[in-house]
Write a structure and sequence with these properties.
Helix content of chain A: under 10%
Number of helices of chain B: 0
Strand content of chain B: over 45%
Largest sheet of chain B: 7 strands, mixed
Structural class of chain A: mainly beta
Shape of chain A: globular
Oligomer: heterodimer
Radius of gyration of chain B: 14 Å
Structural class of chain B: mainly beta
Number of strands of chain A: 11
Order of helices and strands of chain A: EEEEEEEEEEE
Helix content of chain B: under 10%
Distance between the termini of chain B: 32 Å
Number of strands of chain B: 11
Shape of chain B: globular
Largest interface: A-B, 25 and 28 residues
Amino acid sequence: KNQVEQSPQSLIILEGKNCTLQCNYTVSPFSNLRWYKQDTGRGPVSLTIMTFSENTKSNGRYTATLDADTKQSSLHITASQLSDSASYICVVSSGTYKYIFGTGTRLKVLA
Amino acid sequence: GAGVSQSPSNKVTEKGKDVELRCDPISGHTALYWYRQSLGQGLEFLIYFQGNSAPDKSGLPSDRFSAERTGGSVSTLTIQRTQQEDSAVYLCASSLAPDLQGSKPQHFGDGTRLSIL
């Protein structure tokens, strides 16, 4: 069964600290992996998209990594800001229009 | 606006009533998706449109759910005889025509929060 699992479910950190969110997937076939940020009451917004051949991709303070052999991905947030408080969703595409969504990690950044 | 627009943003209705949710995709986006997001759950795929046709309706939970898209643009999701378990946030996304790798980014609206009393 195609699944995307994320950990931790929730995380609280202090402003300025770094954090890493994890994503494990069992999806076949694999096309690409995406990370989205979803603010409360808003739709998800794309942060990164990585194909099979890409190991890392950055978007400002967000850096995603992908290990296609172990089927793991991580999202590293550097120097967190209050505005980083949101849910982060890992999504794996299994081709053309099929996307499998994780349940997300809820991040809270405290001042 | 330049983004995906959904209306209404909130809808409260009584059990048994019909509801219609609307999605205006980004101009030029031929692909359109509907998802359902329940509390604590990942996004659940409902239906995918390419142009006006829906090659995959496999995610629609029951025959009370239907969707259409006209003019390759606006889409409506209709839920008939609503039940309490239909309460959720319904999200719409659009993208350029998907390639074989599914690499085109999806752009989401802010959703319709549906509450069934």
